[in-house]
Amino acid sequence: MSAVEGMVFNIQRYSIDDGPGVRTTVFLKGCPLSCIWCSNPESLDPLPEVTWRYTSCRRCGTCVAACPEGAITLTDDGILIDRNGCSRCGSCVAACLPGALALSGRKMTVEEVWSVVKRDRDYYEVSGGGVTCSGGEVLGQPEFVAALFRRCRAEGIHTCADTSGWGSPEAMETVLRESDLVYFDLKHLDPAEHRKLCGRSNGPILRNLELTVARGVPLVVRLPLVPGCNDTDENLAATGALVARLAAGAEVHLLPYHHYGESKYRMLGKEYPLPEVESPAPEALERAKTIIESYGLKCDIKK
Ligand code: SF4
Ligand code: SF4
Fold first, then answer.
1. Is 90's C-beta closer than 6 angstroms to any atom of ligand 2?
2. Domains of the chain in sequence order
3. 101-104/130-134 β-pairing
4. What is the atom index within ligand 1 of the atom nearest the CA of 58?
5. Which of 46, 150, 176, 233 is the most interior residue, by most CB within 10 Å?
6. Closest by alpha carbon to 186, among 243, 250, 137, 246?
7. Which ligand 2 atom lies nearest to the CA of residue 91?
8. ipTM over 0.85
9. Nearest ligand atom owner, CA of 49
């Protein structure tokens, strides 16, 4: 039995967007990037975080009394959590009977995750599905991902790593060794723009993309399409040209920006960064697809 542990914030069964077939997606906590369009803000911090559900809160104040750090204040509109003062002890979560509070993220062993994953092996078999590790960033927990994938492969279950590509080459190698497929995000090809939008340069990402191609692991390149951020013809053309040059057989998926993550920002006491940005129009998506396809690549628009 493996004692390797990972910090997991969600295990989503019956997923159909994170690789072929029906899958179980294991979401890992912690990401080195901070993309302004991120729809999983609970994935950024590598440690557990308290979330607060506005609609479930009865404004009873029980959590205020339960907090040993004095980090919670009752307001007319619910509660305020001082994130700097919070020690992530979870006392407030245990005290909140309506279930408005939760701790997002907990350490799990490979065997604990496997015990969930294995329940749906019949679905994987029938649909050609399997297991995906996503994030957060899988390269932040490479040993855990590799150990989980090894466990899956030993039982004939397909494995997919969904990565931003930002991590060390050693981490990438570790994950690649146990991956049957890689979903690889390319957010912006200009290093300065990438730093502005995602908090870091894209240098390590491009190096790890080359490494993925060199190791021969099947690859799908994914481009989140965010109006006004990375949807210029220039960036789309640069992306198409790079993928065609490095990995001509790779598929490209366009991921239209959406507001699905907005409520999660409120649950974490954070401001939603792009409230004014709309999802790309169908014509803009088709135009982006045409540009990518002009490089001889297969391109799909995802939901
Ligand atoms: S204990 Fe729960 S319901 Fe009561 S104020 Fe705190 S978060 Fe709201
Ligand atoms: S997790 Fe602990 S320290 Fe943080 S707000 Fe809740 S009770 Fe206070």
1. yes
2. 5-45+106-301 (3.20.20.70), 49-104 (3.30.70.20)
3. unpaired
4. 3
5. 176
6. 243
7. 7
8. yes
9. 2
